[in-house]
Write a structure and sequence with these properties.
The chain is α/β, with parallel strands linked by helices. The protein contains four helices and eight strands. Strands 2-1-4-3 form a four-stranded mixed beta sheet. The protein has a four-stranded mixed beta sheet with strand order 5-6-8-7, with helices on one face. β5, α3 and β6 form a beta-alpha-beta unit. The chain starts with 8 loop residues before the first strand and ends in a 17-residue tail after the last strand.
């Protein structure tokens, strides 16, 4: 801002809406006559763009814009649901409903089947459970790959569908005769 602007000439923008290309010293003098600061807003432009504004107010507006942008930003989280190879149907449905809610909120879901003790001999049951889970959630999210076995855990990742909250369309019914 002001004297620290090193460009020879700038595209000066003034509060009354006028824009003109002028030497930096002349633009600085005109801004000071108006009781304002000359602030470089686009240093990479050719020529650089400088605006005559109240610097304190300009800083306040920039912080406010950053805060609003941060507030509107949604951070995608990975929600993890844990199963066992012989999880009961009621528990399965309960966790499936949680997964649907997580996907509707725009978060990813990681379903994990934990094998303990001799259960590791029946990894096919865990993979079958994960495939069933993925098939039940196909309307709400898309599956990222096949179930993978890592150590004593098998897992699968499900990402939300882009049209979050949109319900799948029902097939058309034949007209009654």
């Amino acid at each position: 801002m002001n004297e620290s602007i090193r460009a020879r000439e700038v595209r000066a923008v003034f509060p009354d809406g006028t824009t003109e290309i002028m030497p930096t010293s002349a633009a600085l003098r005109k801004a000071q006559e108006l009781g304002l600061d000359l602030v470089l807003v686009a240093p990479t432009a050719v020529p650089p763009v400088a605006k005559a504004v109240d610097f304190g107010h300009y800083q306040y507006e920039q912080k406010k814009k950053q805060h609003d942008a941060k507030k509107k930003q949604h951070v995608v989280q990975v929600k993890e649901l844990k199963f066992r190879p012989n999880t009961d149907d009621h528990d399965y449905d309960f966790k499936k409903n949680h997964a649907i809610r997580f996907l509707a909120e725009g978060n990813r879901v990681k379903a994990v089947v934990q094998f303990r003790g001799r259960e590791i001999a029946h990894t096919d049951l865990g993979k079958k459970l994960l495939m069933r889970f993925a098939a039940d959630l196909v309307a709400h999210g898309s599956v990222e790959g096949q179930p993978r076995l890592e150590g004593r855990n098998a897992h699968i990742l499900i990402s939300p569908v882009k049209a979050a909250g949109a319900k799948p369309e029902k097939p058309p019914q034949p007209a009654p005769q």
